[in-house]
Specification:
The chain is of the alpha/beta class. It has 11 helices and 11 strands.
């Protein structure tokens, strides 16, 4: 089971979350000990009214771990129990970057104050370190890794999916969805709505483990011979459209075309023939082409090898 969703901050101030398709919305609430996202509560209440699953996050800035945790909790009291709580651990604007003990202190204080184990958000580049922290805290992971910056809609199987266990995967910051004219962070959650609510519940236990969070294996890739047969049957279009579709599906168009040509006989050399001239005999013609007169007679249905005539076309191969 998977769900699609977005995360927003004051960069998307005024966004109509009732119009944007999403199973869940995660809002930035606070940062450090002196910033509250001005649009957070409006976004939260609108997403809630629209029936979205909810989440709020705190951007860790470093300084005083207990003070940061308290600042976050004090400003989200009305959301506790219905929204997942997230600690955003990034290198920018974070004086505690690299100090995992600091992150653990913030997380434990949030748990102590709310009864909710916060999910940890960070980049795939530090997965080994951040996953060890999450394991120690019994926390879920939200991992960010992008294939590129090309505009995209929701993806059922983002690039490099399954390379690590996580509860949520953020796979682009250039998402484009109906209802909003701008870039959005797009995410896939490897859980259903009930599991999401367990992550949000006070004194609840995380509903997913890394093993559960990994997607089901992708279906086996078709062989190139099978694809070539489908091309011949017209299932892959023509021209540049066919080339684009084959590339997107992970096939080399030139290799597939070579197999198509082979199946259609396009790579076979043309059959050789010889037109009999006056004075020719079958033995001389056979010697010229490295064969025997018996073979030529059999290939051309000649009952009497001594009886050929000018203008007669003989098959050599």
């Amino acid at each position: 089971m998977i769900m699609n969703g977005i995360d927003v901050s004051n960069w998307q101030a005024g966004i109509n979350l009732a119009a944007v398709p999403a199973d869940f919305v995660i809002m930035k609430a606070t940062q450090g000990t002196n910033y509250i996202s001005p649009d957070c509560d409006r976004q939260y209440q609108q997403a809630k009214k629209a029936g979205r699953l909810l989440g709020v996050y705190h951007y860790v800035a470093g300084g005083n771990a207990i003070a940061e945790a308290d600042y976050f909790v004090n400003n989200i009291k009305g959301y506790i129990g219905e929204a997942i709580l997230v600690l955003d651990w990034e290198i920018e604007q974070n004086h505690a970057w690299g100090n995992y003990e600091y992150l653990k202190q913030v997380a434990r204080r949030v748990k102590e104050r709310t009864g909710v184990i916060p999910i940890i958000y960070s980049m795939a580049g530090i997965y080994n370190g951040i996953s060890a922290v999450a394991k120690e805290l019994n926390a879920g992971l939200w991992i960010a890794q992008y294939a590129d910056n090309n505009p995209t809609g929701y993806q059922a199987h983002p690039w490099n999916e399954g390379a690590y266990g996580c509860a949520i995967r953020q796979y682009t910051s250039a998402g484009r969805l109906p209802g909003y004219n701008g870039n959005l962070d797009l995410n896939i959650a490897y859980m259903d709505a009930n599991a999401w609510r367990k992550y949000a519940a006070k004194n609840g236990k995380p509903a997913a483990t890394p093993a559960q969070s990994k997607p089901a294996p992708a279906p086996a890739k078709k062989s190139e011979d099978t694809i070539a047969a489908e091309v011949i049957a017209g299932k892959w279009g023509n021209g540049q459209d066919r080339i684009n579709r084959l590339k997107k599906a992970g096939y080399n168009p030139a290799t597939i075309q070579a197999k198509v040509n082979a199946k259609l006989g396009a790579n076979k050399p043309a059959a050789r023939t010889y037109t009999v001239r006056a004075g020719d005999n079958l033995s001389a013609i056979a010697a010229r082409y490295g064969t025997t007169y018996q073979a030529l007679a059999a290939k051309n249905g000649i009952a009497n090898p001594n009886l050929i005539y000018p203008g007669q076309v003989l098959k050599i191969d």
